[in-house]
Design brief:
signal, 18 helices, single chain, hydrolase activity, acting on ester bonds, elongated
């Protein structure tokens, strides 16, 4: 008997030292991590974080050089490492394996009791691991998340990722990246700064994989119930990769836990709470082989010890569903009690928890003595409580526990990646003078670019919890493209989230502001400016590839400004010639946009011409005398804008009318029956383009207007296009005269879904209180008596008429301003709207 007891003790000690704490087997852990990666890939689609910085497939499959484990042994002395090269998902998957290496070192650090009945770490069978090996006093939650001695904790993984995102190319390369720890004792000297980033990423992803292993252990009952399980733990040793694949394909996610799992439709938790909640769920709803306890039946756990291992309050048999079955014993059939889980996922699928133990169970279909020597050894070693967990129960329990492990780890992956946003603003500075190498003066259009890479730490539960924030330092690229195809790429460099340096034409970097340049007229850019040249219709954006992600700023589209020339009002001029007068002098002024050096060529309409070359920003001012005039003469003076070499660019014209002045003894109010008319003396317009988001473009002429609105967010683009026209207003009219004006909405098109409308309105300006100044362009113009035509309120009505009435009993010099306005909005007036007011000023002339 002594020999048998001694041999049994040696067997128990050996098995305890080799088997203690391995949780799911390593192949199962790899498969859990693999399935979690795939769940994460599916869950990240459409999330804002990954729209700002997606993880494209080609970057996920890019290998990173790091530290690989090349052994599978018991102690540190048998632990070997070497350089390895794996992709991001591969590092995460093998990290799920290597967290168990070396076995003895790992095993005593992979237990966490969320109730802390004795301690949160492993105390069961202290005589084995505490005396013969070690008792570090470290629980799995602390070890996996942020213990300072663990070089592959979750927090350390975030730190490695932060280091990869902050490698400064101006700092000399370090001789090695690994601190003094047996798991890192490998000289990984980076060959360049890109390799330095790669090594940090490999360390980060391996740490993530090992942290996911630790979280997976929280779905192992023995690991959350202070059960060192030195021999047999059914759910641990009888679950393999095929069970994980089946659980991932058809997950039974318990509704009692899904509110805490973002990948299952719940809310993302902080890392510490996620581990605690998963461990608490497993602890309260599952037994391990040595912790079956029922107070009412006086069932004491196999491993009960008043100092080292206490009985857990749940589950109790009263929490479970009791049943009985007949099992063929050695001689007769025996009645055996069983207990199944109930509530939550247990109501969807049968999950057996414990069964009454038989002295001999050769014929029990839920036993497997012939195939499981560990179970047989356990029965001989004294682990023979009244109830046990047959090995056949393992797959049913795994149906509930494995989906939790997979989805909780998908959440851990989600919180690992930071929310970062690359924003670029393109400020159009307009026309600025430049200095050509020859010393000649010239102008070009300038766009100044400000760009930042921001870590929104407040949106990241893990990064915020650990007080870590990324200040991106590293390379970036300016991309100039046309129709989505890159035309040029320029290297940039960021420091602490801000653009610091830009590429020169010789390939080196210099600390300088980023500016884009476009030619004006026939001026050529300097070589330096041409390197950052942009043409009409091209787009520009900044992009960064870092941390296995690709960040892109919103593209800016350059639209070259049309060259225009405008003769300043009044647009229609009437001169009354006194008796005997035959000439009049008129002062003209014309301005051109954008500012540049232009040639102004005047044709005064009477055969006389004049031209002058002016420097940028200077308007053309000229006086001209018309001679040999007579009543009813009409002139259409015109200015033509040309480049300094004579290329035609734009033109504009006004009207000058000559009338004969009538002698009137005494000014008196004119009536409809008396002389005098309302004369159109000038026209002008005011434009409003209001938008919180993207593009509102408004254009107008004296008889038409158009509004184009494009509203864009990260999920969709809505486009609205409106056009309207109206009858030409009369050049003159008699007092009290009414003129019919046709108002017509020619085009009203909007994207399906958002609210939109457009309106065409006219106001005749007869009320003096509302005459001067006329209403400025605005979307809502209350207080005026508009005659309106709105499309969207009544889409079938697209035109109307209005009798424009001119004031009665006017005096000489009285004015009446008629306003025609066209307005439209897209996605609601508060989001984007535009308006154009066209004004017609009439002056009464007796």
């Amino acid at each position: 008997m002594r020999i048998k007891f001694f041999c049994t003790a040696l067997l128990l000690l050996f098995l305890a030292l080799t088997h203690d704490g391995l949780a799911w087997n390593q192949g199962t852990h790899r498969q859990i991590n693999y399935e979690a990666v795939n769940v994460f890939y599916r869950q990240m689609e459409g999330k804002k974080k990954y729209l700002l910085g997606p993880l494209p497939e080609e970057l996920r499959q890019k290998p990173c050089r790091g530290i690989a484990v090349t052994s599978s042994g018991l102690d540190i002395g048998h632990y070997t490492i070497a350089e390895g090269s794996f992709t991001m998902p591969q590092w995460i998957i093998v990290g799920g394996d290597w967290a168990d290496e070396p076995h003895l070192y790992a095993s005593v650090r992979h237990f966490y009791d969320p109730l802390g009945l004795v301690k949160p770490y492993l105390t069961d069978q202290f005589w084995a691991h505490g005396v013969l090996y070690e008792a570090p006093g470290i629980d799995a939650k602390t070890w996996g998340l942020d213990h300072p001695d663990n070089p592959f904790s979750f927090r350390q993984g975030l730190t490695y990722y932060k280091l990869a995102m902050e490698v400064d190319d101006s700092v000399p390369l370090p001789p090695t990246l690994a601190p003094n720890h047996f798991k890192l004792n490998l000289n990984l000297a980076p060959v360049d700064h890109a390799d330095q980033r790669s090594v940090y990423l490999a360390l980060a992803y391996r740490a993530l994989g090992e942290a996911m292993h630790m979280l997976g252990d929280m779905t192992q009952p023995a690991h959350v119930r202070n059960d060192s399980h030195p021999l047999d733990e059914p759910i641990e040793t009888r679950i393999f990769s095929e069970h994980v694949r089946a659980a991932a394909a058809d997950p039974f996610l318990d509704p009692r836990l899904t509110p805490l799992l973002a990948s299952a439709g719940g809310t993302l938790q902080e890392p510490e709470r996620l581990v605690r909640e998963v461990a608490s769920f497993t602890n309260s709803h599952f037994y391990s082989e040595d912790t079956i306890h029922d107070k009412a039946s006086k069932i004491i756990p196999n491993n009960y010890d008043p100092l080292l291992a206490h009985a857990y309050p749940s589950p109790q048999f009263s929490d479970l569903r009791e049943s009985a079955t007949l099992v063929q014993g050695y001689l007769i059939k025996r009645r055996v009690k069983r207990y199944d889980g109930q509530g939550g996922a247990f109501d969807w699928t049968r999950v057996p928890m414990a069964q009454e133990r038989l002295s001999f169970h050769w014929f029990d279909p839920d036993q497997s003595i012939w195939n499981d020597p560990l179970e047989s050894a356990a029965s001989y070693s004294g682990a023979t409580g009244r109830y046990h967990i047959p090995n056949a129960y393992a797959p049913n329990q795994a149906k509930v526990l494995l989906p939790i492990a997979i989805h909780a780890n998908a959440d851990l992956m989600d919180m690992f990646f930071p929310t970062m946003e690359l924003v670029s603003t393109f400020a159009e500075k307009g026309v600025e003078k430049g200095d050509a190498p020859s010393g000649a003066e010239y102008s070009r259009y300038v766009i100044e670019v400000e760009t930042d890479m921001t870590h929104h730490q407040e949106q990241d539960v893990a990064w915020k919890a650990y007080g870590l924030a990324i200040e991106y330092t590293g390379p970036a690229t300016l991309v100039i493209a046309r129709d989505g195809k890159p035309v040029s790429r320029r290297a940039l460099h960021f420091r602490k989230g801000r653009l610091e340096a830009i590429e020169k034409a010789d390939g080196t970097l210099e600390k300088k502001k980023l500016r884009l340049y476009s030619t004006l007229g026939e001026h050529a850019l300097t070589e330096e400016e041409e390197f950052y040249g942009i043409e009409d219709g091209q787009t520009a954006h900044v992009e960064i590839e870092a941390g296995t992600r690709r960040f892109k700023s919103e593209p800016f589209t350059y639209k070259k400004k049309d060259t225009t020339v405008v003769i300043q009002p009044p647009r229609i001029v009437t001169y009354e010639m006194a008796e005997g007068a035959t000439q009049v002098t008129h002062e003209f002024e014309a301005t051109a946009r954008p500012d540049d050096a232009y040639r102004f060529v005047w044709d005064f309409g009477d055969g006389a011409t004049f031209s002058e070359d002016l420097r940028p920003g200077v308007s053309s001012k000229i006086s001209h005398t018309y001679t040999n005039l007579k009543a009813k003469d009409r002139f259409h003076p015109e200015v033509r804008l040309e480049s300094t070499s004579g290329a035609a660019l734009a033109k504009d014209a006004v009207t000058i009318d000559i009338t004969e002045k009538e002698d009137v003894a005494e000014p008196a109010p004119a009536t409809a029956e008396g002389g005098g008319r309302w004369m159109l003396t000038r026209t002008w317009q005011d434009i409003l383009e209001s938008s919180r988001f993207n593009t509102v473009n408004v254009q107008g002429t004296e008889t038409s207007a158009s509004i184009h609105i494009s509203v864009k967010d990260r999920s969709a683009t809505w486009v609205f296009d409106y056009g309207a026209s109206w009858s030409p207003l009369p050049v003159s009219a008699a007092p009290r005269e009414e003129v019919e004006i046709l108002l017509k909405v020619d085009r009203a098109e909007g994207s399906t879904g958002p609210v939109w409308s457009c309106g065409l309105e006219i106001y005749d300006g007869r009320h003096k209180d509302h005459n001067y100044p006329p209403p400025k362009a605005t979307f809502l113009a209350s207080g005026f008596k508009w005659h309106s035509l709105w499309v969207a309120k009544d889409p079938k009505v697209t035109q109307t008429t209005y009798n424009l009435s001119f004031g009665k009993n006017p005096k000489k010099g009285d004015k009446q301003v008629v306003t025609v306005r066209f307005v439209g909005h897209g996605c609601g007036a508060a989001i984007a709207n535009g308006a154009v007011h066209q004004y017609y000023e009439y002056t009464f002339q007796p």
